[in-house]
Design goal:
The chain contains nine helices and 22 strands. It has 391 residues and is α/β, with parallel strands linked by helices. Among the domains are: 89 residues, Pdz3 Domain (Roll), CATH 2.30.42.10; 173 residues, Alpha-Beta Complex (2-enoyl-CoA Hydratase, Chain A, domain 1), CATH 3.90.226. Helix 7 runs parallel beside helix 8.
């Protein structure tokens, strides 16, 4: 498998509310051409599907549309894999997925999680976004979308209601501490989502990486250099609630801190182990603390596993999600795409992540909502204490 072909996607309870809902985890993106029918007899598969299709068209009381037939057939085939991560993307959904990997989106500009009551809340509101202009604040709970409400939301279902073309509007009902619920109408627009945010805590440089898309590693390197110029003697890299993204980006992030060696190993069906090494472009050897939580998944876990095995970072937080399988996304003839699992990845020392996760050096349980306020963010407080002890 070539390095340029890999990407990563996973399920977690955090989304960037843009055109797509939530993309995350480990995906091996094969973006060239359609998938041939391999290893399946036409008499066993295609002819039977054609027969059922003919019967439906001839005798069903309400014949299905071509679109629903395609969706149903593909979904059924993927369902036969018993693969949790297998999925079919319609042409519109696949286009949105590609936009998500580029770091540019159409939407309202909110990263969203689920609270303990199963209601979406704003983890972060992006600068210059429709949400910021509309007065949405971090911590706001969204109790209805265009008048629709549920006792407990599925994030994908909620996002499906909120996303839409640029220039259209969506009405969100917001519950904010100390106020009665109120509506805000947001006009969807193109939103450039930054991969990183940074802050200096004296001699400690803090940077949060929110996803692993195409610009992420370069943005992170720029932030490290900027904080270095401000006198940073060590760094905290925050991967909490980061659900993943591109494998190449994860390798490039590891390469910022690790000068040589293995970044990740990929065990693919019928193939020799694929060893992915760092790029040799490390830019800092200063002390590093990594923050993770139960929503740090896939590409985040590749970074955490590599930094741990190379003894390059001290890890603080709680055990990561445990997504160690690799999915492949392949386009098909109708403009959509299919995704299914093709491999597992391992840390440089061949530690298994799938179903296990990465365990921190310092375990600090905390309600994710407490990240919204530095005064209650005890994981960050611990990370600062650990790093300062190394300076």
């Amino acid at each position: 498998m070539k390095r340029v072909a890999k990407a990563l996607l996973v399920p977690a309870l955090i989304v960037v509310l843009t055109l797509t809902g939530f993309w995350a985890g480990t995906v091996y993106a094969g973006l060239g051409g359609t998938i041939p029918l391999v290893g399946a007899s036409r008499s066993n598969v295609g002819v039977l599907i054609d027969e059922v299709d003919r019967l439906i068209r001839q005798t069903a009381l309400v014949p299905s549309s071509e679109t629903s037939e395609v969706t149903g057939a593909i979904t059924g085939l993927l369902g036969s894999l018993e693969d949790t991560y297998a999925a079919y993307y319609t042409p519109a959904e696949y286009s949105a997925l590609l936009e998500g990997q580029s770091g540019e989106f159409y939407g309202v500009g909110i990263s969203v999680g689920l609270n303990k009551d199963g209601q979406p809340y704003a983890v972060r509101v992006f600068a210059g976004s429709p949400a910021e202009r509309g007065g949405v604040k971090a911590g706001d709970v969204f109790t209805a979308v265009n008048g629709q409400r549920q006792a407990k939301w599925d994030l994908d279902a909620w996002v499906a209601l909120v996303k839409g073309p640029a220039g259209t509007t969506v009405v969100l009902e917001i519950t904010r501490a100390g106020k009665a619920p109120f509506d805000v109408t947001l006009t969807r627009a193109k939103v450039a989502i930054p991969s990183t945010t940074m802050k200096m805590y004296g001699e400690v440089g803090y940077v949060r990486l929110m996803s692993f898309n195409q610009p992420s590693a370069a943005e992170l390197a720029d932030q490290i250099k900027a904080m270095d110029a401000q006198g940073a003697k060590g760094y905290i890299l925050d991967l909490r609630q980061n659900p993943g993204g591109l494998l190449i980006s994860a390798i490039d992030v590891v390469s910022i801190f690790v000068p040589d060696g293995v970044a990740v190993r990929v065990d693919e069906r019928g193939q020799p182990e694929d060893v992915q090494s760092v790029t040799g472009n490390a830019i800092t050897s200063k002390p590093l603390v990594l923050l993770v939580d139960g929503y740090s998944a896939s590409a985040s876990e590749i970074v955490a596993g590599a930094l741990k095995d190379h003894l390059r970072a001290t890890i603080v937080g709680v055990k990561t999600y445990g997504k160690g399988s690799v999915q492949q996304v392949r386009p098909i003839a109708n403009g959509g795409a299919v995704k299914f699992t093709i491999a597992h990845y391992l840390t440089p020392d061949r530690n298994v992540i799938n179903g296990i996760g990465v365990t921190p050096d310092y375990i600090v349980p905390m309600d994710p909502l407490k990240q919204l306020d530095e005064k209650t963010d005890i994981q960050l407080t611990k990370a600062l204490s650990v790093l300062r002890s190394k300076l």
